[in-house]
């Protein structure tokens, strides 16, 4: 499914990111900000509704994020970096156990790293500013 050429991968990641944003974000927006606009008011942290410019700003920053995500294949396919990365195109190359466990394990490892890095950043001896 993922193209073999780098620019095909860039385009693929960009399109998937945009589609995911439009489908999931659009559905959430439609549900909470259009269909349940008055019912969901009680659950809003800020009671003030966003201005049109706020929506445009959020969409703009989301598209910047799509561009950053889409640039990932440019980095991973760089000849200096590629020898240190691996893309598995055939699930049978490793076991199905590997296929189903790799994402949850990566998620736990990443969250653990992120949690402790964040805790360290707020340690009084490192965080010198009030």
SSE arrangement:
Layout: H1 6-35, H2 52-70, H3 72-76, H4 96-121
List keywords for this structure.
single chain, 130 residues, mainly alpha, 2 domains
Cα gyration radius (Å): 20 Å
In total, the number of domains comes to 2
Beginning-to-end CA distance, first to last residue: 50 Å
Q: Please state roughly what percent of the residues sit in beta strands, choosing from under 5%, 5-15%, 15-25%, 25-35%, 35-45% or over 45%.
A: under 5%
Overall helicity: 55-70%
Instruction: Using the alpha-carbon principal axes, give the shape.
Output: extended
Number of strands: 0
Whole-number average pLDDT? 89
SS-derived structural category: mainly alpha
The major β-sheet equals: none
- Count, helices: 4
What order do the SSEs take from the amino end to the carboxyl end, as H and E?
Answer: HHHH
Question: Unreliable stretches, pLDDT < 50, 5 or more residues?
Answer: none
In a nutshell, what does this entry contain?
This protein is mainly alpha-helical and 130 residues long. It contains four helices and no strands.
Give structural notes.
The chain has 130 residues and is an all-alpha fold. The chain has two domains: 6-87, no CATH class; 92-130. Helices cover 62% and strands 0% of the residues. It has helices at residues 6-35, 52-70, 72-76, 96-121. The model has no long low-confidence stretch (mean pLDDT 89).
